[in-house]
């Protein structure tokens, strides 16, 4: 047990010490506090449990394990809840506009509860993908000893299926390749139980990034949701946050510039989601670390893609878990000089110390490629600039889609219209599908274009069309797709001025996205353009639209 001192009760002492705190203590006695508990540091356990998604349906039990660990180490664990939403359920609907907003709500709620209640340390347990950056941002703002625990990945469904299989089945049905009975069979069996979506989609990307950042215990990002390893991970996190309190190691001591560089390199090696760019920018902002799109460009030049994982690859996260997770990959990267080994982590040790005794992958595995045979020699996360996106856009291009696309614009105002155009055959080979007014302000909320990209793949047009948007993509999206186009359409960015038939070029090698429209013609179009009225004038979406920054700055709300 960690030696408990009054120095570890910096915040809880303000709430429970002295005669004047008798009313507060009376309230706490009602929820189970004893006289002895008032002498212990209080550890807030932020649980994202909910039955709204399989990603989080088991997290109540994990939070209880974290509470037990905190109590075992001499602290007093206190479980509280924050929210989650389900992208897999909401994708393609108006409700999806709340998805990215939930990141801010989670961060705000953790800051609010912990700040109000005087918790000395924090353990946060998250599942669905906005949980993770939301938890980290909340803990970063508080800057009290903290650990994040990932809820774990789901097992594959029947026939090696997952949620993306269901989305793509919709497109296959529209093409006539499968019938309704086959769609129903995939629907019935693709999601077998608890855990986050099973490929290197956004949840697994962010879990891996947070472990590489040093804010999770080693191995936390690569565990099945239902496993003894995951329960143990939570218990140990509860114990370790008390040790962090004793040593006064806080998030801003861990989340340094070097740590973010490590996280970027790891998600590139894993072929992670484009959302990783958005979220890492926001997380860096929360700890006052300067991080820009240009950093992704520079780091990407010398970081290869090594993981053959879905959506662009073959394997699922549970299969990577079975061969050792991301620790052996990080050890390889450290040995190759690609990671900073001297950064602090939540173990109280450096990254190099954590990795010192990690064994390599089995010799016969083919999920993680050697450096001599990468899937791509440099980053798949390509930052594009040009007259169509002066302040930057983000693409996920592994090379399997090709490295250059030229086509003609087929413009849609919003996701629903684009999806209908794809499914009814309006979109044809050679088109660049343009989906606009889906940015952080314009949507508002920057919806994921998973339904359109999955429909494109399902209809067999993955190599025949491109798709660009001021919205964003699910980690499950693949194909020749470019998102986060800035300035967004609602701010009058060039994407707002595109017309059907305009020639568009996307070049991953030159990192350029451009349209063959003269400056004079663009000036004429801009003079006629009128900013649309906001879609929402009250409530959380209206507040978000007023506060949110550009996607190129992480779409944060406290800039």
What are the key terms here?
single chain, 559 residues, alpha/beta, Rossmann fold, Glucose Oxidase, domain 1, 8-stranded mixed sheet, 4-stranded parallel sheet, 38% helix
Walk me through this protein's architecture.
With 559 residues, the chain is α/β, with parallel strands linked by helices. The protein has three domains: 6-155 and 193-355, Response regulator (Rossmann fold, 3-Layer(aba) Sandwich); 157-192, no CATH class; 381-553, IlvD/EDD C-terminal domain-like (Glucose Oxidase, domain 1, 3-Layer(bba) Sandwich). The chain has 21 helices and twelve strands. The chain has helices at residues 12-16, 22-30, 59-72, 87-90, 99-117, 131-142, 163-175, 180-189, 202-213, 228-247, 251-254, 257-269, 275-286, 293-300, 317-322, 327-335, 351-355, 415-423, 450-458, 519-528, 539-547, and strands at residues 42-47, 76-81, 121-126, 146-150, 381-386, 389-396, 404-413, 431-436, 466-469, 480-483, 503-507, 512-515. The strands form two sheets. Strands 5-6-10-9-8-7-11-12 form an eight-stranded mixed beta sheet. A four-stranded parallel beta sheet has the order 2-1-3-4, with helices on both faces. Helix 7 packs across helix 19 and helix 12 (257-269) crosses helix 14. It starts with 11 loop residues before the first helix and ends in a 12-residue tail after the last helix. The mean pLDDT is 97.
């Amino acid at each position: 047990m960690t030696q408990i001192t009054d120095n570890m009760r910096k915040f809880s002492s303000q709430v429970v010490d002295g005669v004047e705190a008798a009313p507060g203590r009376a309230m706490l006695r009602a929820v189970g506090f004893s006289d002895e508990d008032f002498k212990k540091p209080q550890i807030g356990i932020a649980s994202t449990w909910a039955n709204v998604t399989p990603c989080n349906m088991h997290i109540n039990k994990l939070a209880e394990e974290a509470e037990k660990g905190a109590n075992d180490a001499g602290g007093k664990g206190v479980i509280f809840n924050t929210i989650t939403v389900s992208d897999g359920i909401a994708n393609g609907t108006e409700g999806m506009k709340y998805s990215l907003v939930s990141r801010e709500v989670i961060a705000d709620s953790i800051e609010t509860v912990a700040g109000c209640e005087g918790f000395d340390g924090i353990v946060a347990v998250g599942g669905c993908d906005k949980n993770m950056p939301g938890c980290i941002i909340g803990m970063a703002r508080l800057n009290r000893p903290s650990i994040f625990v990932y809820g774990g990945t789901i097992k594959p469904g029947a026939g090696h299926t997952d949620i993306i299989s269901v989305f793509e089945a919709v497109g296959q049905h529209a093409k006539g390749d499968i019938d309704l009975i086959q769609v129903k069979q995939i629907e019935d069996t693709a999601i077998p139980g608890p855990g986050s979506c099973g490929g290197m989609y956004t949840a697994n990307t962010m879990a891996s990034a947070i472990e590489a950042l040093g804010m999770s215990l080693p191995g936390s990002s690569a565990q099945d949701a239902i496993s003894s390893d995951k329960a143990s991970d939570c218990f140990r996190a509860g114990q370790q946050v008390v040790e962090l309190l004793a040593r006064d190691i806080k998030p801003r001591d861990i989340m340094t510039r070097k740590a973010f560089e490590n996280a970027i390199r790891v998600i590139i090696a894993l072929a992670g989601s484009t959302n990783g760019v958005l979220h890492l920018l926001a997380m860096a902002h929360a700890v006052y670390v300067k991080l820009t799109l240009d950093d992704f460009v520079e780091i990407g030049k010398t970081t290869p893609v090594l993981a053959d994982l879905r959506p662009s690859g073959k394997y699922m996260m549970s299969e990577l878990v079975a061969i050792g997770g991301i620790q052996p990959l990080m050890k390889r990267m450290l040995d190759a000089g690609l990671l900073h080994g001297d950064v602090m982590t939540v173990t109280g040790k450096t990254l190099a110390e954590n990795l010192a005794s990690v064994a390599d992958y089995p010799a016969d595995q083919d999920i993680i490629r050697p450096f001599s045979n990468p899937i791509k020699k440099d980053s798949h996360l390509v930052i594009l600039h040009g007259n169509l996106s002066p302040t930057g856009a983000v693409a996920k291009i592994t090379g399997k889609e090709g490295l250059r696309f030229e086509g003609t614009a087929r413009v849609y105002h919003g996701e629903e219209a684009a999806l209908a155009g794809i499914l009814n055959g309006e979109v044809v080979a050679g088109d660049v599908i343009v989906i606009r007014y889906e940015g952080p302000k314009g949507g508002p909320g920057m919806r994921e274009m998973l339904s359109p990209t999955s429909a494109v793949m399902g209809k067999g047009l993955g190599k025949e069309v491109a798709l660009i948007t001021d919205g964003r993509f699910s980690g499950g999206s693949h194909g020749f797709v470019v998102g986060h186009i800035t300035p967004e359409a609602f701010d009058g960015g060039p994407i707002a001025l595109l017309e059907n038939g305009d020639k568009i070029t996307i070049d991953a090698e030159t990192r350029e996205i451009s349209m063959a429209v003269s400056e004079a013609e663009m000036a004429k179009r801009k003079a006629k353009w009128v900013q649309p009225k906001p879609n929402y004038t009250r409530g959380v979406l209206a507040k978000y639209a007023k506060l949110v920054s550009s996607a190129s700055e992480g779409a944060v709300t406290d800039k």
